[in-house]
Design brief:
By secondary structure, this protein is an alpha/beta fold. The chain has 17 helices and nine strands.
Length: 449
């Protein structure tokens, strides 16, 4: 039992120390999972490195766990880069149109993430730029029938159904369209279901909400019959990344359509007991100046405000910057830990419970969602590399101290054990991280020239 406790403690402290090296900070769009990681760092950072080294040195099983953690992280990287390689390979060896798309993606920085990575020092440009809006439900513009919206949901899977329940409860008319047949579910929710996109658009919805996956969004938007819609229709997305749908909307939507990019920072699981105080991020990318169009946008936002959401307005670029450091890191750690097959023990610590809860909260999400966070957020690659560097630096600390112990035993050295403390490895991580960013900047400058 003591061995089991030390193993769970060692894993908890290892994850905490790796995350501490990343210097995670609270953001305006924290998720519950990210909050738990911040708490884990706070709970483990006060313990000395000697305590952590003791957990490593005096339990014969922890070296195996360290190796398994290393293999799990490497396996996840292979999954990500394997999928990335497949995408690039198809584009390289596809038709001329595919090659053209590849070149456009490279130019925009979607596939060549290193060339467009902002350094950590540039984060100051975002400080204070996000604005939180507080709505008063009593003064809601959705208080009478004249202010109700006709909302079409394109993509009626779990998340689309999740949103539809609240839309209907607030009295809005909801239409739905999806490739799969959800007519029975729609009927139970009080939603009008359409199996044909033309039929949906001929209903002239005021708002079209895209609840598709990140990977299928562009294909879906290209397939919609825009000519059947009113010229001022408001398009809304709810994807976990924001610059990608923003650029896609601007590229493919006719200029007379309005654009609102949003990200509800919750889902069917985290929002099952209500949306109060859960973050809802939005960016009014293109809203017409006419009073009716401004009012319609505000009515849609008010749906979430009435449910108690914390309304945060920020640019799509700022959202993706914060999300790479919070949402992507959270999902990465959850998936790495999931590969270890962690189990509850009779002596769980609060920190270990945090890891178990993190795995549970992220395990339900598809790999496509996680891959989308990686593929369509230009900042994600930098965060993955920093996480890798942090883990390598922590291993250097452990084995560097171990090597020092053996060296003193072999050569009778009188060196001060404190000389093998954690500071050099932390400095090394900082230097490596700075080198990564410097290399990214040099690449960007070279390409621009």
């Amino acid at each position: 039992m003591i061995s089991t406790r030390r193993e769970s403690q060692f894993l908890t402290h290892t994850v905490g120390r790796v995350l501490e090296m990343l210097k995670l900070e609270s953001t305006p769009i924290n998720t519950k999972g990210y909050e738990s990681l911040l708490d884990l760092v706070e709970n483990t950072s006060g313990d000395s490195f000697d305590l952590y080294y003791g957990l490593f040195m005096y339990n014969r099983n922890v070296l195996e766990m360290l190796d398994r953690l290393d293999l799990a992280f490497e396996d996840l990287r292979k999954q990500l880069f394997g999928r990335l390689h497949e995408v690039v390979r198809k584009q390289l060896f596809g038709n001329a149109e595919s090659r053209k798309v590849l070149q456009e993606n490279y130019n925009k920085g979607h596939l060549n993430g290193a060339a467009a990575l902002p350094s950590r020092s540039e984060s100051v440009r975002f400080q204070g730029s996000a604005r939180t809006y507080e709505y008063e439900a009593g003064n809601s513009s959705c208080s009478d029938d004249s202010s109700k919206l006709k909302i079409a949901i394109v993509g009626f899977g779990n998340f689309g159904q999740f949103l539809a329940k609240t839309f209907v409860q607030q009295g809005h008319t909801v239409l739905a369209y999806s490739r799969a047949n959800y007519s029975d579910v729609a009927q139970k929710l009080g939603v009008s279901y359409f199996s044909n996109a033309d039929d949906l658009c001929e209903q002239h919805p005021e708002v079209i909400v895209l609840c598709t996956s990140i990977l299928s969004t562009e294909k879906i938007i290209k397939s919609l019959p825009f000519q059947r819609l009113k010229r001022s229709t408001l398009f809304v997305d709810v994807l976990s990344v924001k610059e990608f749908p923003r650029n896609m909307f601007l590229q493919h939507l006719p200029p007379h359509f309005d654009i609102l990019c949003t990200h509800p920072m919750f889902g069917p699981e985290s929002g099952k007991n209500g949306w109060n105080q859960l973050a809802f991020v939005f960016d009014k990318v293109r809203i017409g100046s006419e009073g009716s169009r401004v009012s319609r946008c505000n009515k849609f936002l008010d749906i979430f405000a009435r449910e108690g959401c914390r309304m945060v307005e920020m640019s799509c670029a700022e959202h993706d910057w914060h999300a790479a450091g919070s949402q992507f890191i959270t999902h990465t750690m959850g998936r790495v830990l999931e590969k270890l097959g962690l189990e509850s023990t009779p002596i769980n610590t609060k920190g270990y419970e945090t890891l178990l809860n993190l795995v549970e909260n992220t395990a339900g999400d598809s790999f496509d969602l996680y891959y989308g966070l990686f593929m369509y957020n230009v900042n994600a690659m930098e965060q993955l590399e920093r996480l890798d560097l942090a883990f390598e630096s922590l291993k250097d600390q452990l084995f560097g101290r171990l090597h020092g112990v053996l060296r003193r035993q072999l050569f009778g050295s009188s060196e001060n054990p404190q000389e093998l403390s954690e500071e050099p490895s932390v400095a090394k991580f900082s230097q490596n991280s700075a080198a990564l960013v410097s290399s990214s900047s040099e690449t960007l400058n070279a390409e621009n020239n």
